[in-house]
Design goal:
elongated; alpha/beta; 434 Repressor (Amino-terminal Domain); 2 domains; Endonuclease, Chain A; single chain; about 50% helix
C-alpha cells in the first residue's frame, strides 16, 4: 500500500502535503501543540493531523485562523497558502475516472496527476512508455511479471492504460516528451507478433503534434540517466513544482523538491541530447520493425 493511501481510501495529495507541511512548520515555530491548534478551530486533534498530512481539503477560514494563531502576519505568505489550498481543492473536486483504478495508491495518484499535468518528460530503459503501449503489449508486460497470478486482474489494468492514453488527444492534449533506450524497441515483449504492431503504433503516435519521441541508441555509451526510468511531471500552475516519479518493480518513489527536480531535468536534457533526432528515431524504429 502506498504511504499516501489510507485504509479508508482517503488520498494525501501532492499539493495538500505541501500546504500541510507549511502549516506544520508554522505551528512548530510558534511552539503550539496540535491540541491548542484544534481548539482554535473548535475541533479535535484529528482534524489538525489530517490537515498537516494533506489528507483533507482545507477551508480558507481554517487556514486564516491557524496562521493568525501562529503569529504569521505576512499577507503575501498567507495569500500563497490560500492560493495553494484553492488549487488543491479544485483538483480534488475533479471526480476523475482514476478514482476507481484497481491498483495501489501510488499508481492512482500518479494517474490523477497525469490527468491534470501540462507536460511529462519520461525516460524509459526496458519498456515502451505506458501512454504509447498497445493493449497486446500491455498484456504481455503484465504476464511477464510474476506478481500477477489471476488472469481476471489483467484486463482492468489494460483498460486503465487505454483510458490514460486519451490524454494525448482532445482539447488540452498532454505534451509528452519521451526518450526510449534502443533496448526497449528490440526486446521481444510478447514475441515479434506483438512487437511489430507495437512499433507501428509508435510510428503513428510520433506524428502527433504534442508528442516528441527520441531513441537513445546503443552506440551512445554512458549517460546520466542509466540508473533507471523516471518521469518528470509538470503543471501549468506556477505554484506547483515539477514532480519526479520513479516506478520500479519493488517501489514507487515521489520526489517533490526543486533541487532534485532541477537535477533530473538536466539529466533528461543530457540524455535527450545524446539521442537520435525525432526524424532519425522514427527511421530506426521503422528499421527495427521491418527486421522483425
Amino acid at each position: 500500500m502506498s504511504q499516501w493511501k489510507r485504509p479508508d481510501g482517503r488520498t494525501s495529495t501532492i499539493l495538500g502535503r505541501k500546504l500541510g507541511g507549511e502549516l506544520l512548520r508554522l505551528r512548530h515555530a510558534a511552539r503550539k501543540t496540535q491540541h491548542e491548534s484544534a481548539a482554535i478551530l473548535s475541533n479535535t486533534n484529528t482534524k489538525i493531523v489530517k490537515m498537516e498530512g494533506g489528507w483533507v481539503p482545507m477551508r480558507d477560514p481554517d487556514i486564516k485562523a491557524l496562521c493568525e494563531f501562529y503569529g504569521m502576519t505576512d499577507n503575501s505568505t498567507l495569500q500563497a497558502l490560500l492560493d495553494l489550498a484553492k488549487l488543491d481543492r479544485e483538483r480534488r473536486k475533479a471526480k476523475g475516472w482514476w478514482r476507481s483504478v484497481p491498483s495501489d495508491g501510488s499508481l492512482a495518484e500518479y494517474i490523477a496527476m497525469e490527468d491534470v499535468a501540462e507536460q511529462i518528460r519520461t525516460w524509459q530503459l526496458s519498456f515502451i512508455p505506458g501512454l504509447f503501449q498497445t493493449p497486446e503489449y500491455t498484456r504481455a508486460v503484465i504476464v511477464g511479471h510474476d506478481d500477477w497470478e489471476d488472469p481476471e486482474e489483467i484486463e482492468p489494468v489494460v483498460e486503465v492504460r487505454r483510458k490514460r492514453q486519451q490524454r494525448l488527444h482532445g482539447d488540452r492534449p498532454l505534451q509528452l516528451y519521451a526518450v526510449v533506450w534502443e533496448a526497449a524497441l528490440r526486446q521481444l515483449v510478447g514475441g515479434a507478433e506483438v512487437m511489430r504492431p507495437q512499433l507501428g503504433h509508435l510510428l503513428d503516435v510520433a506524428k502527433l503534434p504534442n508528442v516528441r519521441l527520441q531513441v537513445l541508441p546503443f552506440k551512445s555509451g554512458a549517460h546520466s540517466s542509466a540508473s533507471g526510468p523516471y518521469s518528470i511531471v509538470s503543471f501549468a500552475e506556477m505554484e506547483a513544482l515539477d514532480v519526479i516519479y520513479t516506478d520500479t518493480h519493488t517501489v514507487a518513489l515521489w520526489v517533490e523538491n526543486e533541487e532534485e527536480s532541477e537535477r533530473r531535468r538536466k539529466h533528461f536534457a543530457h540524455t535527450a541530447k545524446l539521442s537520435l533526432s525525432p526524424h532519425d528515431s522514427i527511421q530506426l524504429i521503422d528499421t527495427i520493425r521491418r527486421e522483425m
